Amino acid sequence: MSTATNASAVPGRSTRLPRSARRMQLLDAASEIFVERGYHAAGMDEIAVHAGVSKPVLYQHFPSKLDLYIAVVDSHAEKLVSDVNTALRTTTDNRRRVRAAVQAFFDFIDQDNSGYRLIFSSDASDPAVIRRVEGATEACVDAVYGLVMHDSGLDPYRSRMLASGLVGASQVNARYWLEAKRPVDKQTAVDTTVALLWGGLSHFPRQTAAADMQATVVDPEAANHEVTGAGSEASGPNVTGAGSEASGPKVTGTA
Fold it and tell me: Where is this region: Disordered (predicted)?
């Protein structure tokens, strides 16, 4: 529930709050106005009234509308990045990590509608705002990249491509699902996105320098026997470094 307070509920003056609580109240009120009116149409007077404070109080916390808007975007972006990071650490199974990350994007867009619109559909073109939005996406990519790079054995460039693809597809599909007015239930949308992503990620087994070196000196007949006699890798790369390879690159590291 928003902490914004309509001015009519507090005639003449605002209730004294601790600075941190006041800041949160102002951010909530501003978020609602920015989503409803857009950055350019929204005014500080309107935001102050919606928050139930005087304009000088608003300016004590935020010197300009741009400063306020950036703070609002930051608050929502931090939540998204935190949600994705938390999701990636809920399991050590690689396929479940992919699902958790995708689920985090769908949940954010579904539950934090204001944040979604401010981050992904903003009408503000100021470079500072654009940097914040791009920074949120990059932070999500970094979280995934760290795990892929640490556990897949791929080079940094391919690792980052995979991370960017996972974040990009999750983001775009979640936005489409919401903007199309939820044409299927959320879990079906998540399942579809996970199937798409895992279908690609599962084809990247762990490759280490030692393994590559060993492959160059091993007897061809023995190598052929090992490939045809060992367990199938069709389900994805090694998760633990031994045994089943059904769950994709091991992703137990941290970003």
Answer: 227-255
